[in-house]
Amino acid sequence: MSVQVIKTQPIEGQKPGTSGLRKKTRVFMEPNYLENFVQSIFDAIGGAEGKSFVVGGDGRFFNVQAIQTILKMAAANGASRVIVGQDGLLSTPAASNLIRQNGTDGGLILSASHNPGGIDADFGLKYNISNGGPAPENVTAKMLARTQEITEYKICDAADVDLGTLGTYALEGMVVEVVDPVTDYQALMEKLFDFDKLRALFAGGFRMRFDAMHAVTGPYATAILETALGAPAGTVINGVPSEDFGKGHPDPNPVWAKTLMDEMMSESAPDFGAASDGDGDRNMIVGKGIYVTPSDSLAVLAANAHLAPGYAQGIAGVARSMPTSAASDRVADKLGIASFETPTGWKFFGNLLDAGKATICGEESAGTGSDHVREKDGLWAVLLWLNVLAVREMSVIDVMADHWQVYGRDYYSRHDYEALPSDVADDVMGDLRDQLSALPGQVHDDLVVSVADEFSYLDPVDGSESHGQGIRIQFEDGARVVFRLSGTGTEGATLRMYLQSYASGDQDLFRDTQEALSKVTAAALEISGLARTGRDAPDVVT
Ligand code: G1P
Ligand code: ZN
User: Fold this and answer.
1) Chain segment 465-486, per-residue pLDDT in tens
2) What DSSP state is assigned to residue 222?
3) Is 40 a catalytic residue?
4) Cys-Cys with 376: which of 146, 329, 361, 369 at CB 3.0–4.6 Å?
5) CA of 21 to the centre of ligand 1 (A)
Protein backbone atom coordinates (compact mmCIF):
# COMPACT_ATOMS: atom_id res chain seq x y z
CA MET A 1 0.00 0.00 0.00
CA SER A 2 1.54 3.26 -1.09
CA VAL A 3 -0.33 5.57 1.23
CA GLN A 4 1.64 8.66 2.05
CA VAL A 5 1.01 10.79 5.10
CA ILE A 6 1.95 14.36 4.24
CA LYS A 7 2.64 16.94 6.93
CA THR A 8 0.75 20.18 6.42
CA GLN A 9 -0.36 23.33 8.20
CA PRO A 10 -3.69 25.14 8.38
CA ILE A 11 -4.33 27.60 5.55
CA GLU A 12 -6.27 30.78 6.26
CA GLY A 13 -9.70 31.40 4.83
CA GLN A 14 -10.96 27.93 3.94
CA LYS A 15 -14.46 28.79 5.05
CA PRO A 16 -17.21 27.16 2.99
CA GLY A 17 -19.70 29.83 1.81
CA THR A 18 -23.23 29.71 0.39
CA SER A 19 -22.24 26.68 -1.65
CA GLY A 20 -18.91 25.21 -0.69
CA LEU A 21 -15.42 26.64 -0.84
CA ARG A 22 -14.94 29.01 -3.74
CA LYS A 23 -11.63 30.69 -4.54
CA LYS A 24 -9.45 31.84 -7.39
CA THR A 25 -8.19 28.84 -9.35
CA ARG A 26 -4.57 29.71 -8.64
CA VAL A 27 -5.34 29.66 -4.92
CA PHE A 28 -6.82 26.17 -5.22
CA MET A 29 -3.67 25.13 -7.08
CA GLU A 30 -1.31 26.27 -4.34
CA PRO A 31 0.55 23.47 -2.55
CA ASN A 32 -1.72 21.64 -0.07
CA TYR A 33 -4.68 23.98 -0.63
CA LEU A 34 -7.00 21.44 -2.23
CA GLU A 35 -5.52 18.60 -0.18
CA ASN A 36 -6.10 20.36 3.14
CA PHE A 37 -9.71 21.04 2.28
CA VAL A 38 -10.42 17.52 1.02
CA GLN A 39 -8.85 15.98 4.13
CA SER A 40 -10.91 18.37 6.26
CA ILE A 41 -14.07 17.18 4.51
CA PHE A 42 -13.20 13.55 5.21
CA ASP A 43 -12.29 14.33 8.82
CA ALA A 44 -15.47 16.37 9.32
CA ILE A 45 -17.68 13.43 8.30
CA GLY A 46 -15.92 11.05 10.66
CA GLY A 47 -13.39 9.72 8.17
CA ALA A 48 -13.77 8.16 4.73
CA GLU A 49 -13.04 4.58 5.82
CA GLY A 50 -15.39 2.14 4.07
CA LYS A 51 -17.43 5.00 2.58
CA SER A 52 -18.60 5.61 -0.95
CA PHE A 53 -18.74 8.90 -2.83
CA VAL A 54 -19.76 10.46 -6.12
CA VAL A 55 -17.18 12.80 -7.66
CA GLY A 56 -17.54 15.09 -10.66
CA GLY A 57 -17.47 18.67 -11.77
CA ASP A 58 -18.44 21.20 -14.40
CA GLY A 59 -15.35 20.73 -16.56
CA ARG A 60 -13.67 24.00 -15.75
CA PHE A 61 -9.89 24.41 -15.71
CA PHE A 62 -8.29 22.21 -12.98
CA ASN A 63 -11.40 19.95 -12.83
CA VAL A 64 -9.70 16.72 -13.91
CA GLN A 65 -6.48 17.40 -12.02
CA ALA A 66 -8.42 18.06 -8.82
CA ILE A 67 -10.47 14.89 -9.32
CA GLN A 68 -7.30 12.80 -9.62
CA THR A 69 -6.11 14.23 -6.32
CA ILE A 70 -9.48 13.58 -4.66
CA LEU A 71 -9.50 9.98 -5.89
CA LYS A 72 -6.01 9.33 -4.53
CA MET A 73 -6.94 10.92 -1.21
CA ALA A 74 -10.22 8.99 -0.96
CA ALA A 75 -8.32 5.74 -1.58
CA ALA A 76 -5.65 6.65 0.98
CA ASN A 77 -8.37 7.46 3.50
CA GLY A 78 -9.88 4.01 3.05
CA ALA A 79 -12.95 4.81 0.93
CA SER A 80 -14.46 1.71 -0.65
CA ARG A 81 -16.00 3.08 -3.83
CA VAL A 82 -16.12 6.25 -5.90
CA ILE A 83 -18.42 6.91 -8.84
CA VAL A 84 -17.00 9.48 -11.27
CA GLY A 85 -18.52 11.04 -14.37
CA GLN A 86 -16.66 10.29 -17.60
CA ASP A 87 -14.01 12.94 -18.29
CA GLY A 88 -14.70 14.18 -14.77
CA LEU A 89 -18.02 15.71 -15.84
CA LEU A 90 -21.18 15.70 -13.75
CA SER A 91 -23.73 18.45 -13.52
CA THR A 92 -24.62 19.32 -9.94
CA PRO A 93 -28.17 17.89 -10.22
CA ALA A 94 -26.85 14.74 -11.92
CA ALA A 95 -24.32 14.29 -9.09
CA SER A 96 -27.13 14.72 -6.56
CA ASN A 97 -29.11 12.06 -8.39
CA LEU A 98 -26.19 9.62 -8.44
CA ILE A 99 -25.64 10.02 -4.70
CA ARG A 100 -29.30 9.21 -4.04
CA GLN A 101 -29.64 6.45 -6.60
CA ASN A 102 -26.50 4.63 -5.47
CA GLY A 103 -26.97 5.35 -1.80
CA THR A 104 -23.45 6.71 -1.46
CA ASP A 105 -22.35 8.42 1.73
CA GLY A 106 -21.89 11.70 -0.08
CA GLY A 107 -20.31 13.44 -3.01
CA LEU A 108 -17.66 15.98 -3.90
CA ILE A 109 -18.71 18.42 -6.61
CA LEU A 110 -16.13 20.58 -8.29
CA SER A 111 -17.55 23.85 -9.54
CA ALA A 112 -17.68 27.57 -9.00
CA SER A 113 -21.16 27.47 -10.50
CA HIS A 114 -21.81 30.51 -12.71
CA ASN A 115 -18.42 32.14 -12.04
CA PRO A 116 -15.96 32.20 -14.97
CA GLY A 117 -13.44 29.38 -15.30
CA GLY A 118 -9.76 29.30 -16.19
CA ILE A 119 -6.41 29.59 -14.47
CA ASP A 120 -7.11 33.25 -13.70
CA ALA A 121 -10.77 32.74 -12.88
CA ASP A 122 -12.60 30.74 -10.21
CA PHE A 123 -12.71 27.23 -8.84
CA GLY A 124 -14.78 25.60 -6.14
CA LEU A 125 -15.42 22.43 -4.20
CA LYS A 126 -18.57 21.49 -2.38
CA TYR A 127 -19.50 18.48 -0.29
CA ASN A 128 -22.96 16.96 -0.54
CA ILE A 129 -24.37 14.57 2.04
CA SER A 130 -26.16 11.26 1.58
CA ASN A 131 -29.54 12.82 0.77
CA GLY A 132 -27.81 14.33 -2.30
CA GLY A 133 -27.97 17.89 -1.00
CA PRO A 134 -25.34 20.43 0.04
CA ALA A 135 -23.84 19.85 3.47
CA PRO A 136 -25.84 21.73 6.10
CA GLU A 137 -24.27 24.33 8.36
CA ASN A 138 -23.42 21.93 11.20
CA VAL A 139 -21.30 19.89 8.74
CA THR A 140 -19.65 22.87 7.01
CA ALA A 141 -18.79 24.27 10.45
CA LYS A 142 -16.93 21.03 11.24
CA MET A 143 -15.06 21.27 7.92
CA LEU A 144 -13.97 24.80 8.72
CA ALA A 145 -12.86 23.74 12.19
CA ARG A 146 -10.75 20.92 10.69
CA THR A 147 -9.09 23.28 8.20
CA GLN A 148 -7.93 25.34 11.17
CA GLU A 149 -6.27 22.48 13.03
CA ILE A 150 -5.10 20.18 10.24
CA THR A 151 -1.57 18.77 10.56
CA GLU A 152 -1.49 16.03 7.92
CA TYR A 153 -3.35 14.50 5.01
CA LYS A 154 -3.28 11.11 3.33
CA ILE A 155 -2.77 10.48 -0.36
CA CYS A 156 -1.85 7.46 -2.49
CA ASP A 157 1.20 7.47 -4.63
CA ALA A 158 -0.55 5.91 -7.63
CA ALA A 159 -1.02 6.50 -11.34
CA ASP A 160 -3.93 8.62 -12.56
CA VAL A 161 -7.21 6.84 -13.27
CA ASP A 162 -8.32 6.82 -16.92
CA LEU A 163 -11.37 9.07 -16.63
CA GLY A 164 -11.93 9.06 -20.38
CA THR A 165 -13.05 5.44 -20.60
CA LEU A 166 -16.19 4.00 -19.03
CA GLY A 167 -15.45 1.09 -16.72
CA THR A 168 -14.42 -0.05 -13.28
CA TYR A 169 -10.91 0.46 -12.00
CA ALA A 170 -9.02 -0.35 -8.83
CA LEU A 171 -7.13 2.39 -7.02
CA GLU A 172 -5.31 0.68 -4.19
CA GLY A 173 -8.22 -0.99 -2.36
CA MET A 174 -10.84 1.38 -3.72
CA VAL A 175 -13.16 0.76 -6.65
CA VAL A 176 -13.50 3.62 -9.13
CA GLU A 177 -16.48 3.45 -11.47
CA VAL A 178 -16.34 5.79 -14.45
CA VAL A 179 -19.95 6.30 -15.58
CA ASP A 180 -21.73 8.13 -18.36
CA PRO A 181 -22.75 11.46 -16.81
CA VAL A 182 -26.06 11.69 -18.69
CA THR A 183 -27.68 8.22 -18.66
CA ASP A 184 -29.16 8.04 -15.16
CA TYR A 185 -30.14 11.70 -15.12
CA GLN A 186 -31.99 11.32 -18.40
CA ALA A 187 -33.82 8.25 -17.08
CA LEU A 188 -34.99 10.32 -14.11
CA MET A 189 -36.29 13.08 -16.41
CA GLU A 190 -38.17 10.47 -18.47
CA LYS A 191 -39.99 9.41 -15.32
CA LEU A 192 -41.01 12.95 -14.38
CA PHE A 193 -42.07 14.34 -17.74
CA ASP A 194 -44.26 13.27 -20.63
CA PHE A 195 -41.59 12.62 -23.25
CA ASP A 196 -44.18 11.47 -25.81
CA LYS A 197 -46.00 14.76 -25.52
CA LEU A 198 -42.75 16.68 -25.77
CA ARG A 199 -41.73 14.73 -28.87
CA ALA A 200 -45.08 15.60 -30.41
CA LEU A 201 -44.56 19.24 -29.47
CA PHE A 202 -41.29 19.42 -31.39
CA ALA A 203 -42.65 17.31 -34.25
CA GLY A 204 -45.46 19.85 -34.52
CA GLY A 205 -43.00 22.64 -35.26
CA PHE A 206 -42.38 24.09 -31.78
CA ARG A 207 -38.91 25.60 -31.72
CA MET A 208 -36.58 26.45 -28.88
CA ARG A 209 -33.03 27.57 -28.25
CA PHE A 210 -31.04 26.23 -25.30
CA ASP A 211 -27.80 28.04 -24.48
CA ALA A 212 -25.51 25.67 -22.59
CA MET A 213 -22.98 28.53 -22.22
CA HIS A 214 -20.02 26.20 -23.04
CA ALA A 215 -20.68 24.52 -19.71
CA VAL A 216 -21.69 21.16 -18.34
CA THR A 217 -25.32 20.99 -19.53
CA GLY A 218 -24.24 20.76 -23.18
CA PRO A 219 -24.13 16.94 -23.26
CA TYR A 220 -27.30 16.64 -21.17
CA ALA A 221 -29.33 19.10 -23.25
CA THR A 222 -28.15 17.64 -26.54
CA ALA A 223 -29.00 14.07 -25.47
CA ILE A 224 -32.41 15.00 -24.08
CA LEU A 225 -33.69 17.83 -26.30
CA GLU A 226 -32.18 16.89 -29.64
CA THR A 227 -31.66 13.13 -29.50
CA ALA A 228 -34.52 11.97 -27.28
CA LEU A 229 -37.14 14.63 -28.00
CA GLY A 230 -36.33 15.27 -31.64
CA ALA A 231 -35.71 19.01 -31.48
CA PRO A 232 -33.75 20.03 -34.57
CA ALA A 233 -29.93 20.01 -34.49
CA GLY A 234 -28.80 23.47 -33.45
CA THR A 235 -31.48 23.77 -30.76
CA VAL A 236 -28.64 23.52 -28.26
CA ILE A 237 -25.98 26.20 -28.73
CA ASN A 238 -22.57 26.43 -27.05
CA GLY A 239 -23.08 22.77 -26.20
CA VAL A 240 -19.50 21.56 -25.80
CA PRO A 241 -18.11 22.10 -22.28
CA SER A 242 -14.87 24.05 -22.30
CA GLU A 243 -12.34 24.77 -19.55
CA ASP A 244 -12.96 28.50 -19.64
CA PHE A 245 -16.59 28.41 -20.84
CA GLY A 246 -15.57 29.95 -24.13
CA LYS A 247 -14.06 32.81 -22.10
CA GLY A 248 -17.59 33.67 -21.02
CA HIS A 249 -19.45 34.07 -17.80
CA PRO A 250 -21.68 30.97 -17.54
CA ASP A 251 -24.45 32.76 -15.66
CA PRO A 252 -27.88 32.35 -17.23
CA ASN A 253 -29.35 35.81 -16.88
CA PRO A 254 -30.23 38.57 -19.36
CA VAL A 255 -26.80 40.17 -18.87
CA TRP A 256 -24.59 37.16 -19.51
CA ALA A 257 -26.90 35.29 -21.88
CA LYS A 258 -27.34 38.40 -23.99
CA THR A 259 -27.12 36.69 -27.39
CA LEU A 260 -30.00 34.41 -26.45
CA MET A 261 -31.97 37.35 -25.02
CA ASP A 262 -31.47 39.35 -28.20
CA GLU A 263 -32.67 36.43 -30.30
CA MET A 264 -35.73 35.93 -28.10
CA MET A 265 -36.65 39.60 -28.34
CA SER A 266 -36.28 39.63 -32.14
CA GLU A 267 -38.85 39.07 -34.88
CA SER A 268 -37.39 35.67 -35.68
CA ALA A 269 -37.46 34.40 -32.08
CA PRO A 270 -38.26 30.72 -31.55
CA ASP A 271 -41.13 29.82 -29.19
CA PHE A 272 -38.98 29.23 -26.15
CA GLY A 273 -35.50 30.05 -24.92
CA ALA A 274 -33.52 28.76 -21.98
CA ALA A 275 -30.00 28.70 -20.60
CA SER A 276 -28.16 26.98 -17.80
CA ASP A 277 -25.06 27.79 -15.79
CA GLY A 278 -21.57 26.34 -15.32
CA ASP A 279 -22.64 23.31 -13.29
CA GLY A 280 -26.18 23.02 -14.63
CA ASP A 281 -28.19 23.87 -11.55
CA ARG A 282 -29.41 27.32 -12.60
CA ASN A 283 -31.81 28.18 -15.39
CA MET A 284 -33.07 31.12 -17.37
CA ILE A 285 -36.50 30.97 -18.98
CA VAL A 286 -37.47 33.32 -21.77
CA GLY A 287 -40.40 33.31 -24.15
CA LYS A 288 -40.82 35.07 -27.45
CA GLY A 289 -40.67 38.72 -26.40
CA ILE A 290 -40.76 38.04 -22.67
CA TYR A 291 -38.20 37.32 -19.98
CA VAL A 292 -39.56 35.32 -17.04
CA THR A 293 -38.02 36.28 -13.71
CA PRO A 294 -36.89 33.29 -11.63
CA SER A 295 -39.35 34.30 -8.91
CA ASP A 296 -42.22 34.23 -11.42
CA SER A 297 -40.95 31.01 -12.94
CA LEU A 298 -41.11 29.35 -9.52
CA ALA A 299 -44.69 30.55 -9.08
CA VAL A 300 -45.78 29.39 -12.54
CA LEU A 301 -44.15 25.99 -12.10
CA ALA A 302 -45.78 25.55 -8.70
CA ALA A 303 -49.18 26.49 -10.13
CA ASN A 304 -48.84 24.13 -13.12
CA ALA A 305 -46.66 21.25 -11.88
CA HIS A 306 -49.65 18.89 -11.71
CA LEU A 307 -49.72 18.92 -15.52
CA ALA A 308 -46.52 16.82 -15.60
CA PRO A 309 -46.70 13.10 -14.77
CA GLY A 310 -44.16 13.32 -11.93
CA TYR A 311 -46.34 15.81 -10.04
CA ALA A 312 -49.81 14.66 -11.13
CA GLN A 313 -50.72 14.01 -7.49
CA GLY A 314 -50.17 17.68 -6.69
CA ILE A 315 -47.42 19.26 -4.63
CA ALA A 316 -47.09 19.31 -0.85
CA GLY A 317 -45.64 22.79 -0.44
CA VAL A 318 -43.49 25.48 -2.01
CA ALA A 319 -40.32 26.88 -0.49
CA ARG A 320 -38.46 29.98 -1.58
CA SER A 321 -35.39 31.78 -0.31
CA MET A 322 -36.15 34.96 1.60
CA PRO A 323 -35.02 37.41 -1.12
CA THR A 324 -37.17 35.62 -3.72
CA SER A 325 -40.44 37.44 -4.50
CA ALA A 326 -43.73 36.58 -2.86
CA ALA A 327 -45.21 35.31 -6.16
CA SER A 328 -44.93 31.65 -5.14
CA ASP A 329 -46.56 32.35 -1.74
CA ARG A 330 -49.64 33.57 -3.60
CA VAL A 331 -49.82 30.28 -5.51
CA ALA A 332 -49.38 28.24 -2.33
CA ASP A 333 -52.17 30.24 -0.64
CA LYS A 334 -54.53 29.58 -3.50
CA LEU A 335 -53.64 25.88 -3.66
CA GLY A 336 -54.08 25.66 0.10
CA ILE A 337 -50.58 24.23 0.57
CA ALA A 338 -47.70 25.30 2.79
CA SER A 339 -45.18 27.93 1.79
CA PHE A 340 -41.74 28.37 3.38
CA GLU A 341 -39.26 31.25 3.46
CA THR A 342 -35.68 30.08 3.99
CA PRO A 343 -32.26 31.73 4.03
CA THR A 344 -30.35 32.01 0.75
CA GLY A 345 -28.66 28.80 -0.39
CA TRP A 346 -30.10 25.49 -1.54
CA LYS A 347 -28.95 23.65 1.58
CA PHE A 348 -31.84 25.18 3.52
CA PHE A 349 -34.37 23.35 1.35
CA GLY A 350 -32.92 19.91 2.11
CA ASN A 351 -34.80 19.24 5.34
CA LEU A 352 -38.11 20.48 3.90
CA LEU A 353 -37.72 18.19 0.88
CA ASP A 354 -36.61 15.21 2.98
CA ALA A 355 -39.58 15.69 5.32
CA GLY A 356 -42.02 15.93 2.41
CA LYS A 357 -43.07 19.42 3.52
CA ALA A 358 -42.07 21.06 0.24
CA THR A 359 -42.09 19.56 -3.26
CA ILE A 360 -40.93 22.56 -5.30
CA CYS A 361 -38.31 25.10 -4.25
CA GLY A 362 -36.72 28.12 -5.83
CA GLU A 363 -34.46 31.11 -5.49
CA GLU A 364 -34.49 34.47 -7.22
CA SER A 365 -30.98 33.69 -8.45
CA ALA A 366 -32.30 31.40 -11.19
CA GLY A 367 -32.50 28.23 -9.15
CA THR A 368 -35.58 26.03 -9.30
CA GLY A 369 -35.96 22.40 -8.38
CA SER A 370 -38.02 19.74 -6.71
CA ASP A 371 -37.80 16.69 -4.52
CA HIS A 372 -36.46 14.58 -7.44
CA VAL A 373 -32.92 15.51 -6.30
CA ARG A 374 -31.57 17.72 -3.51
CA GLU A 375 -30.11 20.45 -5.71
CA LYS A 376 -31.62 23.01 -7.98
CA ASP A 377 -31.83 21.71 -11.50
CA GLY A 378 -31.64 23.84 -14.64
CA LEU A 379 -32.74 21.28 -17.23
CA TRP A 380 -35.51 20.03 -14.97
CA ALA A 381 -37.00 23.55 -14.94
CA VAL A 382 -36.73 23.72 -18.73
CA LEU A 383 -38.46 20.36 -19.17
CA LEU A 384 -41.23 21.23 -16.72
CA TRP A 385 -41.84 24.48 -18.59
CA LEU A 386 -41.96 22.56 -21.88
CA ASN A 387 -44.38 20.05 -20.37
CA VAL A 388 -46.64 22.88 -19.17
CA LEU A 389 -46.56 24.64 -22.55
CA ALA A 390 -47.29 21.36 -24.33
CA VAL A 391 -50.32 20.60 -22.17
CA ARG A 392 -51.74 24.10 -22.06
CA GLU A 393 -50.99 24.75 -25.75
CA MET A 394 -50.12 28.34 -24.91
CA SER A 395 -47.16 30.62 -25.53
CA VAL A 396 -44.94 31.77 -22.65
CA ILE A 397 -46.32 35.29 -22.83
CA ASP A 398 -49.91 34.05 -22.62
CA VAL A 399 -49.07 31.80 -19.67
CA MET A 400 -47.54 34.80 -17.87
CA ALA A 401 -50.42 37.15 -18.67
CA ASP A 402 -52.87 34.56 -17.42
CA HIS A 403 -50.84 33.96 -14.25
CA TRP A 404 -50.59 37.67 -13.42
CA GLN A 405 -54.28 38.21 -13.98
CA VAL A 406 -55.07 35.52 -11.45
CA TYR A 407 -52.42 36.31 -8.83
CA GLY A 408 -51.25 39.84 -9.55
CA ARG A 409 -47.66 40.61 -10.52
CA ASP A 410 -44.63 41.00 -8.29
CA TYR A 411 -42.28 43.24 -10.23
CA TYR A 412 -38.82 42.11 -9.24
CA SER A 413 -35.19 43.00 -9.80
CA ARG A 414 -31.84 42.45 -8.13
CA HIS A 415 -29.12 45.10 -8.19
CA ASP A 416 -25.60 43.88 -7.43
CA TYR A 417 -22.71 46.08 -6.33
CA GLU A 418 -19.67 43.90 -6.90
CA ALA A 419 -16.10 43.86 -5.60
CA LEU A 420 -16.70 46.55 -2.98
CA PRO A 421 -14.03 46.97 -0.32
CA SER A 422 -15.21 44.70 2.50
CA ASP A 423 -15.14 47.45 5.12
CA VAL A 424 -17.40 49.70 3.02
CA ALA A 425 -19.91 46.89 2.48
CA ASP A 426 -19.82 46.02 6.18
CA ASP A 427 -20.45 49.68 7.03
CA VAL A 428 -23.52 49.82 4.82
CA MET A 429 -24.91 46.66 6.40
CA GLY A 430 -23.98 47.80 9.91
CA ASP A 431 -25.72 51.15 9.48
CA LEU A 432 -28.83 49.45 8.12
CA ARG A 433 -28.84 47.16 11.13
CA ASP A 434 -28.55 50.15 13.48
CA GLN A 435 -31.54 51.86 11.81
CA LEU A 436 -33.90 48.89 11.95
CA SER A 437 -35.94 49.89 14.98
CA ALA A 438 -36.27 53.51 13.82
CA LEU A 439 -37.41 52.72 10.27
CA PRO A 440 -41.07 51.72 10.73
CA GLY A 441 -43.28 54.74 10.06
CA GLN A 442 -40.55 56.64 8.16
CA VAL A 443 -41.45 57.90 4.69
CA HIS A 444 -38.92 57.49 1.90
CA ASP A 445 -39.84 58.58 -1.59
CA ASP A 446 -43.56 58.50 -0.72
CA LEU A 447 -43.29 54.96 0.60
CA VAL A 448 -44.03 54.28 4.25
CA VAL A 449 -41.91 51.65 5.96
CA SER A 450 -44.08 49.11 7.75
CA VAL A 451 -41.61 46.50 9.01
CA ALA A 452 -37.80 46.37 9.12
CA ASP A 453 -35.83 43.43 10.47
CA GLU A 454 -32.89 41.12 9.97
CA PHE A 455 -33.96 37.70 8.78
CA SER A 456 -33.44 34.67 11.03
CA TYR A 457 -34.63 31.18 10.26
CA LEU A 458 -35.81 28.43 12.51
CA ASP A 459 -35.70 25.15 10.59
CA PRO A 460 -39.13 23.56 11.16
CA VAL A 461 -37.67 20.07 10.78
CA ASP A 462 -34.54 19.97 12.93
CA GLY A 463 -35.01 23.14 14.97
CA SER A 464 -31.64 24.60 13.92
CA GLU A 465 -31.36 28.37 13.75
CA SER A 466 -29.62 30.64 11.24
CA HIS A 467 -29.16 34.31 11.96
CA GLY A 468 -27.98 37.38 10.07
CA GLN A 469 -29.55 36.24 6.80
CA GLY A 470 -30.26 39.63 5.26
CA ILE A 471 -32.05 42.87 6.07
CA ARG A 472 -35.69 43.18 5.05
CA ILE A 473 -37.53 46.46 4.72
CA GLN A 474 -41.22 46.16 3.95
CA PHE A 475 -43.38 49.08 2.81
CA GLU A 476 -47.09 49.64 3.38
CA ASP A 477 -48.05 49.26 -0.29
CA GLY A 478 -46.57 45.77 -0.46
CA ALA A 479 -43.17 46.80 -1.85
CA ARG A 480 -40.03 45.41 -0.24
CA VAL A 481 -36.28 45.77 -0.37
CA VAL A 482 -33.75 43.27 0.96
CA PHE A 483 -30.05 43.86 1.48
CA ARG A 484 -27.53 41.09 1.94
CA LEU A 485 -23.89 40.34 1.30
CA SER A 486 -23.05 37.58 -1.13
CA GLY A 487 -21.50 34.42 0.27
CA THR A 488 -20.12 33.20 -3.05
CA GLY A 489 -17.91 36.04 -4.26
CA THR A 490 -14.17 35.59 -4.60
CA GLU A 491 -13.13 39.26 -4.69
CA GLY A 492 -13.99 41.88 -2.05
CA ALA A 493 -17.65 42.02 -1.08
CA THR A 494 -20.75 41.90 -3.24
CA LEU A 495 -23.77 43.75 -1.89
CA ARG A 496 -27.08 42.59 -3.25
CA MET A 497 -30.17 44.80 -3.21
CA TYR A 498 -33.37 42.90 -3.99
CA LEU A 499 -36.35 45.03 -5.05
CA GLN A 500 -39.97 44.06 -5.28
CA SER A 501 -43.33 45.79 -5.74
CA TYR A 502 -46.80 44.34 -6.17
CA ALA A 503 -49.48 45.16 -8.75
CA SER A 504 -52.87 43.47 -8.45
CA GLY A 505 -54.38 41.66 -11.43
CA ASP A 506 -56.58 44.61 -12.46
CA GLN A 507 -53.61 46.97 -12.95
CA ASP A 508 -51.32 47.41 -15.96
CA LEU A 509 -49.31 44.19 -15.80
CA PHE A 510 -46.85 44.93 -18.58
CA ARG A 511 -44.95 47.93 -17.24
CA ASP A 512 -41.20 48.17 -17.59
CA THR A 513 -39.74 46.46 -14.52
CA GLN A 514 -37.20 49.10 -13.49
CA GLU A 515 -39.79 51.82 -14.00
CA ALA A 516 -42.33 49.90 -11.91
CA LEU A 517 -39.67 49.60 -9.20
CA SER A 518 -38.38 53.17 -9.39
CA LYS A 519 -39.95 54.33 -6.11
CA VAL A 520 -38.78 51.41 -4.03
CA THR A 521 -35.34 51.71 -5.63
CA ALA A 522 -35.10 55.38 -4.69
CA ALA A 523 -36.28 54.63 -1.16
CA ALA A 524 -33.76 51.81 -0.84
CA LEU A 525 -30.86 53.98 -1.98
CA GLU A 526 -31.87 56.71 0.44
CA ILE A 527 -32.22 54.40 3.43
CA SER A 528 -28.96 52.54 2.79
CA GLY A 529 -26.86 55.54 1.80
CA LEU A 530 -25.34 53.41 -0.94
CA ALA A 531 -23.85 56.53 -2.53
CA ARG A 532 -20.99 56.24 -0.04
CA THR A 533 -19.66 53.28 -2.01
CA GLY A 534 -18.74 55.78 -4.70
CA ARG A 535 -20.76 53.78 -7.22
CA ASP A 536 -23.46 55.60 -9.10
CA ALA A 537 -25.02 52.44 -10.52
CA PRO A 538 -25.08 48.73 -9.78
CA ASP A 539 -22.66 46.48 -11.68
CA VAL A 540 -25.28 43.92 -12.60
CA VAL A 541 -29.03 44.32 -12.81
CA THR A 542 -31.08 41.17 -13.23
C1 G1P B 1 -25.78 33.05 -4.80
C2 G1P B 1 -27.27 33.20 -4.90
C3 G1P B 1 -27.96 32.13 -4.09
C4 G1P B 1 -27.46 30.76 -4.54
C5 G1P B 1 -25.94 30.71 -4.51
C6 G1P B 1 -25.42 29.41 -5.10
O7 G1P B 1 -25.37 33.19 -3.47
O8 G1P B 1 -27.70 34.47 -4.46
O9 G1P B 1 -29.34 32.23 -4.25
O10 G1P B 1 -27.97 29.76 -3.71
O11 G1P B 1 -25.41 31.78 -5.26
O12 G1P B 1 -25.79 29.24 -6.42
P13 G1P B 1 -24.80 34.55 -2.85
O14 G1P B 1 -23.65 34.98 -3.71
O15 G1P B 1 -25.92 35.55 -2.96
O16 G1P B 1 -24.45 34.21 -1.44
ZN1 ZN C 1 -24.63 26.65 -10.37
Assistant:
1) 999 999 999 999 999 999 999 9
2) I
3) no
4) 369
5) 13
